[in-house]
Design goal:
six-stranded parallel sheet
Length: 718
């Protein structure tokens, strides 16, 4: 039977399957068949060694991956009982169903989903008289999650009764304390656990009830963890605890594909696994069955620039000689048109559109592609995102523009209360009845009744003033100026900043960029009405999802997928890598993200960028990830102009120095050297203004020096 299990596996995969005892680390490169190794190992344990499936835990990171693994294993072992093949949170639910009674919780405890959490927060906000000027649901949920990560909050839930918890939020010293304890109170009332609680409750039970911990440790004779590079600190702790009796922990992952630090992943867990556990056996699976030699060489060349990694190079098995193509263009529209032309050539060769993927760092990059694909009649589907002109924030601001030009009911209904102006259902019902009776628009109804007592304590007057002001001015304004002023005067942009909606702000910046481009190309035929008409061709188009369509998605969405043809676009400094990267460690993660993008390609990989100016005024240089790949592995469609390449490299070099310094945060009494002011001492750190207050030796008074300026650290004075 063993022969049938290992038949078709390579030497490293066989090692992974048959190495069953102790701590085993498998470094599985992209496309090296790790899922195959995991499923065959499970089958080997059951069919060859006779281990019961109920005594094996195999943790994956998505329910989809768990279900696929179950399907494969059922076929291999000939049994529907596949033990524990699930996500970390799925496993924790199983533990809690069996043992949460020890905490005096019912077996059928409530698990809160996102909507449930939002409902609780609605109630809390209403009862406490909170509004979005000070707090938002997103910031509060982040605050609650952060406190649950670092605080022993379960003591408050489990060791105090409801009245004590009520006293805690009533007597809290701060609003955040009050909100946090009120949230815990609402949870405890209905024996509810949110997503973060699942693993926290299990760890609490294991810490305080040795007998239950030992029961699970004995039960799980073999623990396997997939995608170990993405585990959080608590998932890491749970893995250690569960394998603490039999000492059989098998982990699979690739530190070069750690791209989820913002979700708590820490690449050090897999890098230092051999330092944490005794006698670790490390197996490196580096034979790549997915990609061509040229794609592999380019990917290896890129990732070798990272320092925090295990030294390995992918070795291609496929032998297809298709070059990796890089093209640099003058505008984003030209970039999209070039990609559209390549797609048509691929389709003409007989390949399906669904074999083609366009990958980007952020959703806003898709805007120019959507416009060109619609014009060229290329079917496309956007995954984990909606079409650019159908995104909420884009539709909102376009409706503001439509209010100035048309004052239509659809636009009015959408944005009259965005941001909040206290024009709710009761007042809207009044306006609808008036508009029907007077046969006028909803906006006219509001205009006519703005002095009515019903609207006295609302933002109706401010809304009307905004619309009327720009009705008088807009014909003499550039559309881009009009948009900026409306975003500012309406409070819409401030609302997104308050909510921390960076992706939505990036999308607005891309809209502004598209309007600039429209103004430059349209010349005198550049009225607001003309622009809105042009946009309506995109927003009204019924772009039906088609089974044979080009697939557009972010690189994070593409993780774990593969495509015959891959275009990685928007390879510009400030876009990819993102302008929000502020340390060398984060830049290494961005490079890993680029590596993930490259290694999604099976047969052909296309890289592209375009010149231009970002809305913040910064120039769009080619990405360092282009320069990170040795030119011998990439075919340049055009040679970069000498000045452009030189300026780009200078910009990147300066940025790299800043990132290194940002990783070494300066503190009060640090001695520094400024390139103009000379030697000085930091007397204060102003986090609010992102600056150091420095007393320079050559000056009588202090200076505020931005964090952006490179300061050489030369010592510390006690």
């Amino acid at each position: 039977m063993a022969d049938s299990i290992i038949n078709g596996l390579n030497e490293e995969q066989i090692q992974a399957v048959t190495s069953t005892e102790g701590y085993i680390r498998v470094i599985a490169g992209a496309g090296s068949g790790k899922t195959r190794a995991l499923t065959h190992r499970f089958s080997y344990l059951v069919n060859e060694l006779g281990i019961a499936a109920a005594n094996i835990l195999c943790v994956t990171f998505t329910n989809k991956a768990a279900n696929e693994m179950k399907r494969r294993i059922r076929t291999m072992i000939g049994d529907d009982d596949t033990g524990y093949i699930c996500t970390f949170h799925g496993f924790c639910v199983q533990v809690l169903k069996e043992d949460i009674h020890i905490l005096h919780y019912p077996k059928n405890f409530l698990i809160l989903d996102t909507e449930d959490v939002t409902s609780i927060l609605h109630k809390i906000f209403e009862d406490m008289g909170l509004n979005s000027k000070n707090y938002t649901f997103s910031t509060i949920t982040d605050m609650i999650a952060a406190r649950k990560e670092r605080e022993p909050y379960l003591f408050d839930i489990l060791n105090t009764d409801n009245n004590d918890l009520k006293d805690k939020f009533n007597d809290a010293n701060s609003k955040e304390d009050a909100i946090f304890y009120r949230y815990l109170y609402e949870q405890k009332k209905c024996f509810a656990l949110d997503f973060d609680d699942l693993i926290n409750y299990v760890l609490y039970i294991f810490e305080h009830h040795e007998d239950i911990k030992l029961k699970w440790q004995k039960k799980l004779e073999y623990v396997m963890v997939d995608e170990f590079q993405d585990v959080s600190p608590k998932q890491y702790s749970l893995s250690k605890i569960l394998s603490g009796y039999h000492h059989n922990l098998f982990i699979v992952g690739d530190p070069d594909q750690t791209i989820y630090s913002w979700r708590g992943a820490n690449v050090e867990f897999i890098l230092n696994f051999d330092k944490t556990f005794p006698a670790v056996k490390t197996i490196i699976m580096n034979k790549n069955y997915r990609s061509t030699p040229n794609i592999i060489n380019a990917s290896n060349s890129l990732i070798e620039k990272n320092k925090r990694r295990i030294d390995k190079s992918l070795v291609p098995v496929k032998q297809i000689d298709i070059p990796v193509i890089y093209n640099h263009m003058k505008t984003t529209e030209m970039e999209a048109e070039w990609i559209a032309a390549q797609i048509k050539l691929i389709a003409e060769s007989g390949r399906k559109l669904r074999d083609i993927a366009i990958l980007y760092r952020s959703h806003f990059v898709s805007r120019s592609f959507e416009e060109v694909f619609i014009k060229e009649e290329i079917q496309y589907t956007i995954y984990s995102g909606i079409e650019f002109y159908k995104r909420k924030e884009i539709k909102d601001v376009l409706c503001y523009l439509r209010m100035i030009s048309y004052s239509d009911d659809i636009s009015f209904h959408r944005i009259v209360n965005v941001p909040k102006r206290n024009i709710g259902e009761k007042r809207m019902a009044f306006l609808k009845e008036y508009a029907e009776r007077k046969e006028c628009s909803l906006y006219q109804a509001l205009f006519d009744n703005q002095e009515d007592s019903l609207f006295k304590k609302t933002g109706a007057g401010d809304f009307i003033f905004l619309v009327e002001k720009y009705k008088l001015l807009y014909e003499d304004m550039k559309i881009s100026e009009l948009l900026s002023d409306i975003l500012n005067d309406s409070g819409y942009e401030a609302l997104l900043r308050t909510d921390g909606e960076q992706e939505r702000l990036d999308n607005l910046a891309e809209l502004k960029q598209s309007i600039f481009e429209y103004e430059n190309s349209a010349g005198e035929e550049c009225s607001l009405a003309d622009y809105l008409e042009k946009i309506s061709l995109f927003t009204n188009l019924d772009q039906k999802e088609n089974s044979d369509s080009v697939q557009l998605m972010t690189i994070h969405t593409a993780k774990g997928l593969e495509f015959p043809y891959v275009f990685v676009c928007g390879l510009n400094e400030g876009i990819f890598p993102s302008k929000h990267i502020d340390t060398a460690d984060k830049m290494e993660e961005e490079r890993r993200l680029a590596y993930v993008a490259f290694t999604r390609a099976e047969n052909a990989l296309f890289l592209s960028d375009a010149e231009g100016v970002n809305y913040d005024g910064s120039y769009r240089y080619p990405s360092r990830f282009i320069f990170n790949v040795e030119k011998t592995y990439v075919n340049y469609m055009v040679e970069l102009e000498g000045r452009l390449a030189s300026d780009a490299r200078s910009y990147i070099e300066l940025n790299e120095k800043k990132l290194e310094l940002n990783g070494k945060s300066l503190t009060i009494n640090d001695l520094v050297m400024h390139h103009v002011f000379g030697k000085g001492k930091i007397v204060e750190v102003n986090r609010e203004n992102s600056s150091y207050i420095i007393k320079f030796d050559a000056m009588e008074t202090t200076r505020n020096i931005s964090f952006k300026i490179i300061l050489e650290h030369i010592g510390h004075e006690e």
